[in-house]
Structure formats: structure tokens, C-alpha cells
Amino acid sequence: MRAILTTCWGLENITADEIRERLRGEVELNPFGFRGRVAISIRTIEEAILLSYSLRTIHRCMLLLHSFKIRTDEGGLEDIYEGVKEAEFTQFLSPDVSFAIRSERKGEHRFISPQIAASAGQAVIDKVMEKKGYRQKVNLDDPDVTIRVDVSNDNCMVCLDMVGGESMHRRGWRRYDHPASLKGSIASALVRISGWDEGETMLDPLCGSGTIPIEAAHTAMDLPPGYFRKDNLAFMRLPFKREVFSQIMAQIDGGIRWGIELRIYGSELFEKHVEGAIMNAHSAGVEDKVKIYRHDVSALSELFRPGSVDVIVTNPPYGMRIADVKRAAEIHRSLLRSGFDLLREGGRMVLVTTHKNLIFSVAENLGFKIDKSLPICNGNLWIRAFKLIKGMA
Ligand SMILES: C[S@@+](CC[C@H](N)C(=O)[O-])C[C@H]1O[C@@H](n2cnc3c(N)ncnc32)[C@H](O)[C@@H]1O
Q1: Would you say the CB of residue 337 lies under 6 angstroms from ligand 1?
Q2: 8 A C-beta contact, residue 208 and residue 277
Q3: Pocket test for ligand 1, best of 178, 191, 206 (most atoms within 8 A of CB)
Q4: Among the CATH numbers 3.30.450.40, 3.40.50.150, 3.40.50.2000, 1.10.940.10, which is that of 184-222+258-390?
Q5: Extents of the domains making up the chain
Q6: How far apart are CA 214 and CA 188, in angstroms?
Q7: Ligand 1 in contact with 23 (CB < 6 A)?
Q8: Which residue from 112, 134, 231, 383 has the least number of CB within 10 angstroms?
Q9: pLDDT digit string, tens, across residues 319-362
Q10: Contacts of 251 (CB under 8 A, 6+ apart)
Q11: Which residues pair with 287 in a beta bridge?
């Protein structure tokens, strides 16, 4: 059996490392030419539950049911119908559950995703009728079982979706929605890139709704990303083994380190976001581990002594949704200057931004070494994560 984990383009290696920490087995990047995906062989469906519930950088976990080649002209729809019928999915269906097909398509084809879904859906209905003698219910809005039929050029992949409608980058604790909040998966990847250790002081000086500080606290606590969304996980709607799946989650929850002491700080200019970040820290169960202040990034020395911070992880405004590009560039400069003063020698700053040229031109002049520069595709926007180290230019 193989599990396919999806993430952002650019984060595949980080997701692969995260998987290796949990399971042994050959990890493959971008299987069948699908970017932003990582595959691993698993022995049981229980291992897929473990991955779905506890990996921080994934968006979804899927069980691979079948993969095959298709034509890219109109004949491809027929190939999809036949290929889906060959997949072994009837064990995941029963008369009392509904299903839907979801499809993603990359490449040039003479057909579009809704046509893929229609062909594949018909194949599921026909196979269940032939094999089990009933007509499988369809529910396109809120299905119990989601089958993914994804096409990349002449490759087609049929998978059982373990996560469902809402990607795992939504953690379920957010009460305050920031207009430019970062995905939990990317926030978590940034924390990993920083190499932050739970004994170190961490600061996000542009913390918005608190995503990065909260993600860091959960990482140190071993609090799984599925913890606050147990009622929103597709594997709990499969018509079997729900007890077993609940036990797996309970076992993982048993390892949460609620009592751990951490030095994680967030600061932010606008009162509304400060209040929102505090509200989010409460609903995420980390109000005693994450301290949020109202402060301007250019005057951080009023809050922290020079050299007293080990790690800064942050997400400055790009000048698209909030602030204009010129103002955003000034904020980047302030961040680099005051971040440099606050960090100890050898301290790290990880930031994600669209202003890559500014970082390349300013960081080394200030005395940072650019240790890593990683392009990431966030939805339709290419951003870049930088890891800067103080005093190693
Ligand atoms: C891209 S958002 C951060 C979003 C955050 N990562 C989240 O997930 O909610 C950048 C934040 O920087 C804040 N900001 C802008 N100028 C600032 C300044 N001079 N000092 C401190 N914060 C500032 C904005 O209000 C905004 O909340």
C-alpha cells in the first residue's frame, strides 16, 4: 500500500524528512510527476491515520488505489472510466455512505476536471452495482468518502482521501481570521527550517494572528495538527475501524507535553491583530506558552535586550493584501535591522517573502549570512523562505 502526502510545491523535502521521523520506508518525491507530493510505502491503513493526524507540513494524506496511463485527447475520459473501475475501492464503501469524486488536472488535455469527475463517478457507481448490487449514493457537497482522481499529463492517480474537504493546513483552532494569515503547514516548515530548539527564545515580530508562535508551541508540545479538528477528518467517516482510528488519535494525544515551558513571543503593530492573536493562542491551548505584545518592528529594542533572542521566524507584509509595496519594503528593512540587533551571535532569522531581491541585496550588508533560500508556491503565488544567520556573512 502507498500513501501520498500533498504539500506546497517547494516543501516536498521538508515533508519527506517529517515522514522519515515517523515511519521507515522508501520516500519518493513528486510521484508520477505530481509536484508538491511525497509518496511512502505503508503496511497498514493505521499508518495512514498516523500520518494524516500528525504530520505538520502536509495538506492531505491519500491512499493510492491505482495509477495508470491515459490518452490526453478525448479518449482519455474512456481510459479514466476503465482505470477507475480497476481500482480497489469497494471495501471503503457501504450502502449507508455517500461519495464524491474530486479531481485536479495538470497539463494539456482535450477534457476538463468536471468531465474527469463525471467519468470516474460513473465508474464507481457501475463497479459497486456489479460487485455489490446497490447504487452508491452521491453527495457532492459533503460526502462521507472522497475519491480523488488526479491527472498530470498522461498519468492518472486514483486515491482515497483521508482528510476530506478541508486541507490539514487549517488546524481548527483559529477564532480570529487575519486577512493575510499564513498556512499552518508553511508556518510549521519555517519553524523546522530555523532549527529552533524548545529551549531557545523565539520571536515573531510581525505576528498578525499568531500563526507562527502557535505552530512553534504546538511543535514543541508534540500537539498534532489534527487535535482541534477531530470532527473534521474524513477517515472518521469511513464505514469501518472508527474505534481503531479513535484509539490511534488518543494514543498520539497521550504524548502531548502540556506542562512544557517555552519562551515564544509575538509582537504586532495593530491592536486588532494583537487581540486576535491572543484569542487564537487561547483557543489553541497555548496562552501560557506564547506571549503577544503590541509593538512596532522598528522599535523592538524597547521590548528585548540586544543579543537576547535566539531565533526569529516571521512573515512580513508583501504589499499585496496589506500595506503597499513601498511600505512593505520599509518594513522588511526595519525587520532586518532590528532583528539583527536582537539576535545573539549565530542566531537565526527565517522569513518568507515575495521581496527576494531586497533580502539578497540587504541581508549580507547588515552582517547576515544567507544560509538557505527556498522557493515555495503558496496557492498561485511564488514566495521564498530565507534562513539568515547573524555574524556569518
Ligand atoms: C503578513 S502579516 C503576518 C500574518 C501572520 N503570519 C498570520 O499568520 O496571521 C504581517 C503583519 O505585520 C504587521 N505589521 C505591519 N507593519 C508593522 C510594524 N511596523 N510593526 C509591527 N507589525 C507590523 C501587519 O499588521 C500584519 O499583521
Answers
A1: no
A2: yes
A3: 206
A4: 3.40.50.150
A5: 2-161, 184-222+258-390
A6: 10
A7: no
A8: 231
A9: 876 669 899 999 999 999 999 999 999 999 999 999 999 999 99
A10: none
A11: none
